[in-house]
Amino acid sequence: MAEEFALDLEELRHLHEIAKRPRILSLLTSEIRNLEKLSSEATSTARASQIPIPAPIATGTTVSPSPARSYSPLASFSWDQDNDKVKIYVSLEGVDETKIESEFKPNSFDVKFHDIQGKNYRFAVVKLHKDIVPENCKILVKPKRVIITLVKASKANWLDLHFKEDKLKPAMDKEKDPMAGIMDLMKNMYEDGDEEMKKTIAKAWTDARTGKTADPLSSYR
């Protein structure tokens, strides 16, 4: 590109030397200036492209990402409670308060013990039996154990640290509606019975709906 500009400039200058009319001379002068500017820019670009890019200098040190910590389960723990608090006793020696990482939430907690005699330990409950007050919970370090105090959100008695479904609830629901179990039994007997059984159960259903009998099974006992 720079060579083309040089040839064009040479020819324009030659024309400028032989031109006589003022307008032609002015046009040629303007075009020569434009080409000189373009030629200069093209030359600068060509020189810049020839400058070698310095290779990155190796520092001799490689930074590797720190490995993820691994945690061991706790050897043993116990717990008790009163109306206001739940206390968890963790058997662990050599604990440094500065190496404990804890997180308390309304229905869970997570406590990590770092670099305890070369090991990391973790104790967490993802869903507690009842809610707690996170900002009031605390950790106390003793020479041979750690005490985690959970402050109850209500004065309810805890059956366990972990949340468990109330197994008594389905049974209580059935007690509230004893007829539901009887009707299910009659439906099963109707589906599996012979024609005589089906007639008897159908009559019992009809009598129960019209109020003729209080016991839907009395008609075929």
From TrEMBL:
GO cellular component: cytoplasm; nucleus
Domain called SGS: residue spans: 147-221
SUPFAM superfamilies the UniProt entry points to: Calcyclin-binding protein-like, HSP20-like chaperones
One Pfam family named in its UniProt record: Siah-Interact_N
Any GO molecular function: ubiquitin protein ligase binding
Source taxon at top rank: Eukaryota
Compartments, as annotated in UniProt: Cytoplasm; Nucleus
Keyword entries, A-Z: Acetylation, Cytoplasm, Nucleus, Phosphoprotein, Ubl conjugation pathway
Keyword match Transmembrane helix: no
Primary subcellular site in the record, as a coarse category: cytoplasm
BP GO terms, sorted: response to stress
Cross-referenced PANTHER family: CALCYCLIN-BINDING PROTEIN, SGS DOMAIN-CONTAINING PROTEIN
Protein name in UniProt: Calcyclin-binding protein
Provenance organism: Medicago truncatula
Gene: 11444057
